[in-house]
From TrEMBL:
InterPro entries, sorted: Rhodanese-like_dom, Rhodanese-like_dom_sf, Thiosulphate_STrfase_CS, TST/MPST-like
Catalyzed chemical reaction(s): thiosulfate + hydrogen cyanide = thiocyanate + sulfite + 2 H(+)
Keywords: Mitochondrion, Repeat, RNA-binding, Transferase
Entry protein name: Sulfurtransferase
Compartment(s) of residence: Mitochondrion matrix
MF (Gene Ontology): RNA binding; thiosulfate-cyanide sulfurtransferase activity
Organism: Malurus elegans
């Protein structure tokens, strides 16, 4: 079971919810993680997708440069000015405006595999439970992909 603190800790405190400086002693427990390979994309799968287009790719970064075919939706697009998640209707409209079909396979990427999770969360809130994350993201792609698979905005504007 996973929870997300909508609005973050800053808003939790601002909204007057309880906090403490007391050190707690949680009861030890056993957690056994099970890797779901369908939710993690490898470099090789991403390279193959450039030509096969088996899944959509959404990049959550602001920087220029991306994997060919990726759609850019900066992660903060899904957050209100206060830092809370936007409404489901607003999130759906963001995906629609970028022509991202939540009924089709989707993989999220970013710089290091962290803010890509905001894309996965936004889609999850809209009912899509199977968004994969390319955890190597741009950091791996930039170092491993052939030069013609590194799309930059400056190249795009000259075309």
């Amino acid at each position: 079971e996973v929870s997300v603190l909508n609005g973050g800790f800053k808003n939790w405190v601002k909204e007057g919810h309880p906090v403490t400086a007391d050190v707690t002693q949680p009861t030890p427990a056993v957690f056994k993680a099970r890797l779901n390979r369908a939710l993690v994309k490898t470099f090789e799968e991403m390279v193959q997708n450039v030509s096969s287009l088996n899944f959509q790719v959404v990049d959550s970064r602001l920087e220029s440069g991306h994997i060919p075919g990726a759609v850019n939706i900066p992660f903060h697009s899904f957050l209100s000015e206060t830092g809370h998640e936007k409404s489901i209707e607003e999130i759906q409209e963001i995906f629609r405006a970028k022509k991202v079909d939540l009924l089709k396979p989707l993989t999220a990427t970013c710089r290091k595999g962290v803010t890509a999770c905001q894309i996965a969360l936004a889609a999850f809130l809209c009912g899509k439970r199977d968004v994969a994350v390319y955890d190597g993201s741009w950091s791996e792609w930039f170092h491993r992909a052939p030069p013609h698979y590194k799309v930059s905005e400056s190249k795009r504007s000259k075309a």
